[in-house]
Amino acid sequence: MKPLILQGHERSITQIKYNREGDLLFSASKDNKPNVWYSLNGERLGSFNGHQGAIWCIDVDWTTTKCMTGAGDNTCKIWDCETGKETGNIPTASSVRTCMFSYSANMAVYTTDKAMKQPCEIFIIDVRTIDDSFSRQEPILRIPISGSRVSSILWDNLDESLITGHENGEIIQWDLKTGKKINSIKEHDQLINDMQWNKDCTMFITASKDHTAKLFDAETLMLLKTYKTERPVNSAAISPIAEHVVLGGGQEAMEVTTTSSRAGKFDSRFFHLVFEEEFARVKGHFGPINSVCFHPDGKSYASGGEDGFVRVHSFDSSYFEYNFDY
Amino acid sequence: MPVPVPEEPKSSWADEVELEGGALPPSTTEVFDNGIKIVTEYKVTEEGKKVKIVRTYRVEKRIVSKSIALRKIWKKFGESANDKPGPNPATTIVGEDVYMQFISSKEEDNKPEDEGIDKLKALGDKNVVKCRNCGGDHWTSKCPWKDTILAGGKLPDDKKPAAPGGPGAESNKPGGSKYVPPSLRDGGAKRTDGPNMARRDDNYCAIRIANLSDSTTETDLEELVKPFGPIHKLYLAKDKQTGLCKGFAYIHFKFKNDAAKAIARLNGHGYDHLILSVDWSKPMNSQ
WD repeats at which positions (chain A) (predicted)? Predict the structure, then answer.
């Protein structure tokens, strides 16, 4: 396969996401301009200019009208996808680490870092109408986190609860009506970099610095599967059509300069969802992969790396013909 | 998908004269019926060289849902506001081919290697080590015959009775450190008939075909001689510069009978308006 290489960023990619139909690919990086691309031919639709700091997270609603970014400049911004204009701006007390629209996109959540004597906090906001008063609007719910900070977040598909992944490897489920913990588990030992749903939001996969990715049941937080590697996993995604997961990682960015790209193992690794066994690899990046995601049709996937490139891979027929021996 | 093909500046002086004066030809776009679009652009690089850039695109039509179609006609914004329709080569490039490397399960991966090692271990020194002195399965330096008179003789019981006795013959033997060419070993005279004849046997299956036309190729030749029997080797003499046939070829048959048949049939045969002359190939040293 010939990947499309998208070179719109000057610094490392932090998160990439497809919209619901998969025709657009949103990419956020540590330079301050998130980009949006046509996933089919790699054409850049535009960039969202306005942030002053590293963008840590990006999300798009299900109608692809609104896009949300959180950045290190202590703001969380809402953008209009069609024009690229900034429509809403929420100033925060510390940098915004994660953000996500709820399934209906009536609400959105963002979390702030524990920094500058500010605690880590979860904010739930109403995003139905975005006008001039938006930045002064009070959040619907504020949950201060006393322990380890939130490093990744997921809405459940009924907009009733939240799942947060924490720096110490903890996973907590929150009830939104009361703002209380429903459930919490600690299956990871280190920072959870990324969490992603499967297609029907019944399971989610976590990617952790402790060299594993794990599959959990969404309702009970029961550990279902563990995918072991020998390096930190920065991102993991579940194929919407096959029983495959893709893991992206590599050693930490600070150690990259002291290892060769061959030894660094910066390839995307494909595991079987059920048998937890690796069956394929795809090379390409020359830095660790920070974010991977499957196209919603499952026929291609994209990866964004520390090297600042986004690579969009369309699978060959060999991938679809491959049968896992068991 | 775009496949940019940067081209060298034109080398023809006539073209350079035409382009002189700073006026670059306008960029052209050709659209073909089969969905191929070729865009030709001219520009001056930083070093002042004029470059022609030809990009070939395949235009694809896809039927998509309304919402996607609507998004396709959105105007570009932000950093891309000034981009033309289609991917901008500055931000989007098609990468080199990468392949998905499929991994069979790890146990299987390790097995063959281990088996190989086990096999070698089972063999022990038997076939791996061979003594250069006596051919036994031990290191040469540990040969029990090392310091005896037999050192250097092939197999102790083989040639010894055949070699004539006497001090003269003994000095001729390939012993000690002195190299003796094979033709002189065991008394040069002895070799001339017997073993050499046998070795030249393959020469006797070789035939020489002359008076071939210069357009003959190896495939033609193969077709010509194949019906006679299996071929061991085929050599067609070709001119180094032109690559054309020099007019003769050597064919080594596997069997002598086939070679004889070929000579009988092909000698005087008309091929490519020329009459072939075919005979046994003469041995190298006699030429």
Answer: 6-47, 48-89, 185-226, 282-312
Tell me which residue of A138, A74, A128 sits closest to A105, measured CA to CA: A128
Sorted by where each begins, the domain ranges of chain B are 3-80, 201-286
Cβ pair A325:B79 closer than 8 A: no
Find the helix or strand (DSSP H, E) in which A304 lies: strand A300-305
CA-to-CA separations, B96 to A3, A4, A266, A311, B235, in angstroms, rounded: 7, 9, 16, 11, 41
- Is B192 in the A-facing interface, judged by CB distances under 8 Å? no
Structural domains present in chain A? 4-321 (2.130.10.10)
| Inter-chain CB pairs, A–B, below 8 Å | 124
CATH number of B201-286: 3.30.70.330
The distance of B58 to chain A (nearest Cα, Å) reads: 11
Express each pLDDT in A104-129 by its tens digit.
Answer: 889 999 999 988 788 899 999 999 88
Under an 8 A CB cutoff, do A21 and B79 touch? no
Q: Are B45 and B68 in contact (CB under 8 A)?
A: no
ipTM over 0.85: no
* A318 lies within 8 A of chain B by CB: yes
Output the pLDDT for position A37.
Answer: 93
Tell me whether residues B83 and A6 touch, CB distance under 8 A. Answer: no
Helix, coil or strand: residue B195: helix
| Strand partners of residue B37 | B31, B57
Q: Is the CB of B65 less than 8 angstroms away from the CB of A21?
A: yes
Helix (H, G, I), strand (E, B) or coil at B35: coil
Q: Which of A5, A48, A82 sits opposite B74 (nearest CB)?
A: A82
